[in-house]
UniProtKB/TrEMBL annotation:
The keyword Hydrolase applies. The keyword Hydrolase applies. One of its GO terms (biological process) is glucosamine catabolic process. The record marks S146, R153, K155, T156 as: Part of the allosteric site. It comes from Streptomyces olivoverticillatus. Its EC number is 3.5.99.6. Catalyzes the reversible isomerization-deamination of glucosamine 6-phosphate (GlcN6P) to form fructose 6-phosphate (Fru6P) and ammonium ion. This is Glucosamine-6-phosphate deaminase.
Amino acid sequence: MEVVIVPDATAGGELIADAIAALLRRKPDALLGVATGSTPLPVYEALATQVRSGAVDASRARICQLDEYVGLPADHPESYRSVVLRQVVEPLGLTEGAFMGPDGTAEDVQAACEAYDRALAEAGGVDLQLLGIGTDGHIGFNEPCSSLASRTRIKTLTEQTRVDNARFFEGDIDQVPHHVITQGIGTILEARHLVLLATGAGKADAVAQTVEGPVSALVPASALQLHPHATVVVDEAAASKLK
Ligand code: F6R
């Protein structure tokens, strides 16, 4: 695992956007796995800037979701489908056809999860998966105690994660769904390159446990230690508890 410490979130976003741009030059139709939440926004902004300036051609890129709320209509502004369309697909000038995600409104959620794992494999696998990290060490929505071998499946969000995400729902925790479909840790580990971005002091404990702690289901992000090509990009605040 490679750990890169950058001065701030903007620098982290630019560094990762450069890595994605380099990938797209090597493989124009790369499948990019994207996370939602606040952390990856500087990456998407920096990448869109490169696309607008002509520094990189993303017109053949393909985008896939990491997770999705269960039961939220696909066109709800906070469904992860809507968020990824708004923050990634549209700014990169891509169409919905370049984009895939799990169906959080499916009647048979288990079948939808299995179908998504199959779709990822049939698409050739994820080339680069961008990850954030929860204050409890989750990746995707694999909360602590998730199996390190898990596949895409339905998970119950912890109270802490629902509190953390209430800011996207007018601060009202009652609007935050209780369940999500998330790529499993085993699914995530199949991506060719994992890039985790963590910014802010609130992530410092989780980062220290991820990088320096034992590999443990109690800290799902520690599974990155098992991956042959994992990069952890942290700003100085998030790095503050590293030895
Ligand atoms: C969301 C996701 C989550 C977030 C994590 C951090 O798609 O995968 O694991 O990355 O909850 O969220 P932020 O970046 O908002 O602190």
